[in-house]
Specification:
- The protein has about 210 residues and is α+β, with helices and mostly antiparallel strands.
- The chain is about 50% helix and about 20% strand.
- It contains 5 helices and 7 strands, in the order E-E-H-E-H-E-H-E-E-E-H-H.
- Strand 5 (about 115) and strand 6 form a beta hairpin.
């Protein structure tokens, strides 16, 4: 007997699928328990209309999921955490904490169990996390874990200052070397020129 499944079934198939089963199994179990209906002419006509409606709905859900994935990919979600001197976190970032931050930022449609985090995040820096959206659309988000009390802008400024000081030191050494060369040239007067100078000085004295 052909029947139309009214719900997903682990062994038989998905909701709306038309399958062949034994008459007794259909009449005594599937149909009485609301798992399936007979695939007669009337039910098949209704099934076709329902299938069209589901298809339109599925397309819309897929389009919405793709839009959401695009928006999520442009965001970087920051966690400010406590960490030791060796930058090891006091605790970890879990799918639950990520879900709470997403809700706080307005992404309330993301389910916690759909956040595909293999293991809790236990290190500083940037991490990529995948989220499974409806219609199997995968969104990728950036999680940035920052140590409490650290200021990335201040760190950049310190690096710039340090680099500037190094450049000044190098330039100072070059200038010193150049000055030394000039002095050496001034002191090192050729012998023939020195003889002329001595002769002129002797005439002036006389």
């Amino acid at each position: 007997m052909k029947v139309i499944l009214k719900q997903d079934h682990d062994l038989l198939g998905d909701d709306g699928q038309i399958i062949d089963v034994k008459n007794g199994y259909a009449r005594n179990y599937l149909i009485p328990n609301g798992i399936a209906i007979m695939a007669n002419k009337s039910n098949l006509k209704s099934h076709e209309e329902i299938t069209r409606q589901k298809s339109r709905k599925t397309d819309k859900v897929a389009a919405d999921s793709n839009k959401l994935a695009d928006v999520l990919s442009t965001h970087s979600f920051e966690f400010i955490v406590k960490a030791g001197e060796d930058d090891r976190l006091f605790g970890s970032i879990t799918s639950q904490t990520i879900h709470e931050l997403l809700e706080e930022k307005g992404f309330v449609t993301v389910e916690r169990k759909k956040i595909l985090l293999k293991e809790p995040i236990k290190s500083l820096g940037e991490h990529e996390v995948e989220i499974k959206l409806p219609q199997s659309v995968i969104a990728k988000i950036k999680i940035n874990v920052v140590k409490e009390g650290s200021d990335p802008e201040e760190k950049v400024s310190e690096e710039i200052i340090t680099e500037t000081e190094k450049n000044q030191e190098v330039n100072g050494k070059i200038q010193t070397e150049n000055n030394s060369e000039v002095k050496a040239e001034e002191v090192n007067i050729p012998d023939e020129n020195q003889d002329e100078i001595n002769e002129e000085t002797k005439k002036e004295t006389e």
